[in-house]
Specification:
- This protein is an alpha/beta fold and 141 residues long.
- The chain has one domain: Nucleotidyltransferase, domain 5 (2-Layer Sandwich).
- 46% of the residues lie in helices and 26% in strands.
- Strands 3-2-1-4-5 form a five-stranded mixed sheet, sandwiched between helices.
- The longest helix has 27 residues.
- Belongs to the YqgF HJR family.
- Keywords: Cytoplasm, Hydrolase, Nuclease, Ribosome biogenesis.
Length: 141
């Protein structure tokens, strides 16, 4: 079964999907969010889960550098809790410290323009979140 990775923000949600073997993560898209329209976000993710036969949804959990969970982390935890009402898949929170910075570095090193980076940064962060999870899960199997 596949895994879905999410980088949840207030304006966008980056989405990545694993291959059927759970070896690699690929960026899928970036969902644009409308304020006060969270149900649409949950429904869009539920549709992706169903269409792709996803068994695990990995949501990035932004932690502070000292490991504590701040306001953004609490926001992502609340998102995960609400999403659980819409999907029939396991939800895993994954430490995402520095993934956006790493995604930015990859795109800068690839000489992607600032304008194009802005369009794909969330999808790239979701890919790094999911790949980190897949790498760790593969080592424990």
């Amino acid at each position: 079964m596949k895994s879905l990775g999410l980088d949840v923000g207030s304006k966008t949600i980056g989405v990545a999907l694993s291959d059927a073997f759970g070896w690699t993560a690929q960026g899928v898209n970036t969902l644009r969010r409308e304020e006060g329209e969270s149900e649409q976000d949950y429904q869009a993710i539920a549709k992706l889960v169903q269409e792709n036969e996803v068994s695990t949804v990995v949501i990035g959990l932004p932690k502070n550098m000292d490991g504590s969970i701040g306001a953004n982390g609490e926001y992502c935890q609340a998102f995960a809790q609400a999403l659980s009402e819409y999907i029939d898949a396991d939800i895993v929170m994954w430490d995402e410290r520095l993934t956006t910075m790493a995604a930015t570095r990859v795109l800068v090193d690839a000489d992607v323009s600032r304008k194009k980076r802005k369009k794909v940064i969330d999808k790239m962060a979701a890919t790094l979140i999911l790949q980190g999870y897949l790498d760790r899960a593969g080592k424990t199997l």
